[in-house]
Amino acid sequence: PLTSRVTVNRIWMRFFGRGLVETEEDFGSQGAPPTHPALLDWLSLEFQRLGWSQKSLHRLIVTSETYRQASQHRPDLLDKDPRNLLLARQERFRLEAEVARDAALSASGLLEPTIGGPSVFPPQPEGVYAFTQVNKSWPTETGRNRYRRGLYTFFFRSAPYPLFTTFDTPDFQAVCTRRLRSNTPLQALTLANDPAFFELAQGLALRLAIEVPGEFAATLDDRIHRATLLCLSRKPNATEQRVLREFVTREVAAFQNDAAAAEALATPALRKVAAAPEAAGLVLLARALLNTDNFITRE
């Protein structure tokens, strides 16, 4: 059943970074053979038995022991299976462009869950269209639409959304079955300086101040704990907790001597629930966590 085999393989590729047939665009004689042919056949038949329900297939895969493995490298497997074709561990790979932004939206609590509707225009750096051949306008959204999922972002083929381009989104000039995954300094600079991510860091700081209320020094450890859970889906270890506490404490002390800088970082809404230096410290905590490799990487 070719249709179900191709569909199952592409869904598998989304969860593991590589399909059971690595040439997911070519199941013919020139394509790569499946690494687990019996598994591919069984999943194809199971997909049909489930009424071609992708949701049911997703549940089947993510509840399997293979998917739930840790992604740590095992020295005993490096010589036997360096590419992890036997799936003895989970794969570790960077999130796709839209998903990276959606993850930041979710962590900040600003994600707008509305489904469907026209394309939207989230914030982007100024001057993006200054060097294009055709004049284009980008009417940046001012309401909740600026927090829609990346799926709904308007896309100019000749001048695509910069954040997505940095994270290897296809150019829409040709069919793409598999996205490249680069690892460049520009991605870290984008996470640190893109106006959309800066706004989401401010949103995350406000969420921390509201969800963990109280005197700043007494609640700092709890706020760091909460921020790490929201951004990395795990608790911070002792070293991370100490480093982040020292970082925030140092920055808050600096902001107490620079009120203008503190007010530039903290939004009016944030200053209503925390003093400006403390609010600015929370924004920097959020920016630091949103700019980590662990945040944009699926373990």
Automatic annotation (TrEMBL):
Pfam family, one: PSD1
Coiled coil: none
InterPro entries tied to this protein: DUF1553 (IPR022655)
Record-annotated DUF1553 domain positions: 1-247
Alphabetized PANTHER family for the sequence: CYCLOINULO-OLIGOSACCHARIDE FRUCTANOTRANSFERASE-RELATED, F-BOX DOMAIN-CONTAINING PROTEIN
Protein name: DUF1553 domain-containing protein
Source organism: Schlesneria paludicola
